[in-house]
Amino acid sequence: MKNKKALLIIDMQKGSFTSKTPRFDTSGVVKRINGLAQLFRQLDFPVIYIQHDGTGTGEFEKNTKEWELLDDLKVEETDLVIDKYANDVFYNSKLQPILTELNVTELLITGCATDFCVESTVQSALTKDYIIKVVEDGHTTGERPHLTAEKIIEHYNWVWRNMIPTKGRIIVENYEQIKNSCEQQL
């Protein structure tokens, strides 16, 4: 049986992309996410937007401007939107039951922030034996006191390429490689 894939788009929310919290290559990452989402819809694979819901914390309160997805993302009615409550998307969210119901075995992971929610989700998905494909140029983060955003992204792409796999595995490919692979399936 062919692997059923899902595209995860993590925390691409207005509150993470402010003048005080600039992100590396935001417009490029959004463009690549939109391109992958369009391909996944054509292949009849789920596109899942994940929004951090910080209700009660004073940040990312549900239905506030900072909680909203970026305006440049092309969200369709058929896409799924789920809330998350910790760095790891799987923690106390509806993600796992949805993936199980849809028979998803392979996750394509994109989003923000590389060193927090994207990393936590990759690690968690690996322990759940998913086949994980991280979009090398489809995740972003901000500058940190000791590293540039570009170096953080480069570092985590290297880490993910070199992790010891479980029954699943991690593959890191860039947008063009993934796009070409998807187009061959159309």
Concise structural overview:
This protein is of the alpha/beta class and 186 residues long.
Outline the structure in words.
The protein has a six-stranded parallel sheet. 34% of the residues are buried. 33% of the residues lie in helices and 23% in strands. Helix 1 (26-42) runs parallel beside helix 5. It contains five helices and six strands. It has helices at 26-42, 95-101, 114-127, 149-161, 175-185, and strands at 4-10, 47-52, 80-84, 104-112, 131-140, 169-173. The chain is globular and about 45 Å long. The mean pLDDT is 96. The chain is an alpha/beta fold.
Q: How would you classify the quaternary structure?
A: single chain
Main beta-sheet annotation: 6 strands, parallel
Whole-number average pLDDT? 96
Distance between the termini: 18 Å
- Number of discrete helical segments: 5
Residue windows where pLDDT falls under 50 for at least 5 positions: none
Content of β-strand: 15-25%
Strand order of the largest sheet: 3-2-1-4-5-6
Helix/strand/pairing class, anyone?
Answer: alpha/beta
Q: Which geometry do the CA atoms define? A: globular
User: Secondary-structure element sequence?
Assistant: EHEEHEHEHEH
Helical amount: 25-40%
Number of strands: 6
In angstroms, what is the radius of gyration?
Answer: 15 Å
